# Entry
Amino acid sequence: MDDSMHQHSESTDHHQPSGIKRWLYTTNHKDIGTLYLGFSLLMLFIGGAMAMVIRAELFQPGLQLVDPNFFNQMTTVHGLIMVFGAVMPAFVGLANWMIPLMIGAPDMALPRMNNWSFWILPFAFAILLGSLFMDGGGPNFGWTFYAPLSTTYSNDNTALFVFSVHIMGISSIMGAINVIVTIFNLRAPGMTLMKMPMFVWTWLITAFLLIAVMPVLAGTVTMVLTDKYFGTSFFNAMGGGDPVMFQHIFWFFGHPEVYIMILPAFGIVSTIVPAFSRKKLFGYHSMVYATASIAFLSFIVWAHHMFTTGMPLAAELFFMYSTMLISVPTGVKVFNWVATMWRGSLSFEVPMLFSIAFIVLFTIGGLSGLMLAITPADFQYHDTYFVVAHFHYVLVTGALFSIIAAVYYWMPKWTGNMFNIRLAKIHFWLSLISVNVLFFPMHFVGLAGMPRRIADYALQFADFNMIISLGGFAFGLSQLLFVWCVVECFRGGEKVPARVWDGAEGLEWEVASPAPYHTFSTPPEIK
Amino acid sequence: MKQHRPLLKRLVVISGLMFGFAFALVPLYDVFCQVTGLNGKPSMEKAKVSESVNTSQQVDVDFLTHAKEGSPFKVTTESQRLTVNIGEMNKVTFIARNLSDQDRVFQSVPSVSPGLAAQYLHKVQCFCFEQQALKANEKIEMTLLFYVDEELPIEIEEMTLSYALFDITEKI
Amino acid sequence: MRFLFTSDDVIHAWWIPDFAVKKDAVPGFINEAWTNVNVEGIYRGQCAELCGKSHGFMPIVADVRSPEEFELWLIEQKELVAQQAQQEAALKDVSFTMDELMTLGKDVYTANCSVCHQPGGQGLPGLFPSIKDSPIATGDVQEHIDIVVNGKAGSAMQAFAKQLSSKQLAAVITYERNAWGLNTGDLVQPKDVQTDDSSDTKPTIETPPTEPNLDSAKVIEDPLVDLDKTKLMELGEQAYTEHCAMCHQASGLGLPGAFPVLKDSPVINGPIDKHIDIVLNGKEMTAMQGYKGKLSATTIAAIVTYERNAWGRSGEVIQASEVNVQIKGAE
# Structure
């Protein structure tokens, strides 16, 4: 490459650094998207390994492998890693890759902040994971870190947990700000808000949720820090504080957080299903309004996590009704996906397989959620495996499946290669079967009376726990197939055209596959 | 980048405000609870003497004290349960004892169940939250003077006032 | 029934599914719940809020009786409390010899302390501290008394003030200071352990007495009646849960390294008289204590029957008379 070759075409080579420097200093949304996705895949396996430890211990009654304190560290860090290290960064990675392409923008609005947003994450997780190996061990109070277990009765490494969460929070907030500014300011001319793809809409709303509640998490975790180390009494009755107040403040963040983890999934499914039904998304407007309603409602349901804390009847009723209400816009969305498929010209490529599985299985998760919303019933379900079943259905067969679907859907665009379809289909079927063997019986043991977060259980739960553990091992192993498919696809494969899938719509399919390093340096015209 | 500044500024401010909101939730929570009595935290204001006594409505009030096992002090009361008329002023005497050979300070934190009853329990004189110093093996009397508000819903037939006792000698 | 909940440390949750009651126990606050139970019986539940490493090991047992039965039981308990108070008062002026204290102390230690601190006093590194190597056992006596009587906040070391009489406490502390070659020569008498508080009554309800109430005027004779297998299994499961499960676990799998497995073990599968013997007389040099004189022959027969028929095994039925033969044979 010499100077005479400077051309301002789509795929100019800008003497960019290669190797480590490229990745360390990149401000390119595609690179950063890849970094986030690779990071989240690694975190998925680390969190997954912890789940394997949990399931191995719970395979049989009795304490065979780990002591209860370590078991509690596993459940805690498994939760933290999956929520903050796997699901959220994966969605941010997809946002980075796809939003500029979908709105015809050359990059994210704030590329240098984008780089920071990513690179502080490995740092944060190194601190969190490192604390596992230090004297005293890692956090062992559940990912929800209720006080005073996390304040008065935790070990000194709690400070590391707090800093780690602060850093993750900063990363998310910066990422969310970037998404909002990008979507508001960099849409191609002619792309009005109501012409944006659903993935962009859901991410816009998610980003607002993020900047609203991640700071509240930061505040919560700061209060835990000061209560523990600086003598404040936010959550200590002796000093006039209230442990239940912790739960209010935490869940004010915590509930919107779970919608943060599902709205982008809705956007993905709203993208993939129309593509493989060869039909426009049914009810685009209602989808936008439904997403906004869900986001708004997510702020007024938080105490449904706290029905057993001793709330007065009026409060229990309010939160019960508002929680049940959320199922309405969610139902609208499920209906619209099915209506999209109705009389569509369906084909069952791998992204579509995962998306259809999402629709069915996420709905099952939603139904158990509706059961949990009924306060007097929740008295029996609360803190049992029934809850564990619910949130794993919505998070694994929900969020995770949508991420996998998205990867299979867009990977050919990123790499220029089709993935190994046969292997991917095997990955799908193995995952589908094992995930249900893993999580469905949890409904039963929960209803039978098995509490959460216990290292050992009463004999009557033994049989189901063995089945669950076997499902878990199978599901964990199946994900290795996914890694293989991804790595293989990045290395090579059947070449694909710009429009990889014939029914796919959106600006991303107008650029070549693999997408050039710089795209839409001049914005396209939207009709 | 210039075009992004205004929006960027606004979003950063919102984040900052939400961080502050988390801390604002602390007093907000207290205000909300005091107004509605939702967490059983009785009103901390010194109540005025009640206007009238309603002998047609009564409520049973239990008095409990609870200290961690092995605590060096003990608080007891003769009247563990009183049936009181609405509006009537009642006095309950608590005896606090330091069982150890050192001078200690303790504090009582009140809690009322059902939570909703808390706002109707007016404590004219109470030792709640007061730092009570007791010399080694000393025994003192503490007084609770209270009345139940006329507005108490008729459905509430019994309530419990429980004091959690904390040894705060090291903390002060 | 109306329940009131609070906590001394972290948030727990009290849950008995059959009562449809689950309520958080919050430190510094009280919560209430109510339920109606129409059938007498034993109801079980578990803690339902992560509370630390023992969260999975916090079972709840409720014994529900009719109002009449409850009144009777209440009267019984009050009598027991009065008796114990009398005994405590009498002990104030008694001085025991080193031998008496060491013998009783060893028994108390085996029944209450060795489960964590081990028969040899060495504890379990990382979990339960050693006593024999600890400065407490050879240091200030008052400190030693304090930690046994009042427990140690923030640790699993509970306060034994309400579970053991002052005679037992004095004995076990004396034992800990002189066993395992420590030989401090310190003697602790009941009055050293007693507090001045006259209203500090020792409740009797929950824990079974570890020392037989030989001073009691009433000695209940074991009727030694033959029972059917179902009844024996029912009694046996109850008794096992109360007396054995804390070490050998409800699953019979024990805690490897600390408490042996019962399920499919040579004792369970082996000769009945050896099985009865180990339950009656304990096992030397281990934490397994003897239950002769502490549990009736009927109860022991029920336990042995349960242990031989639980966990997938179909075994023999042992009657109280058989157990009684072995008790008498030794006397």
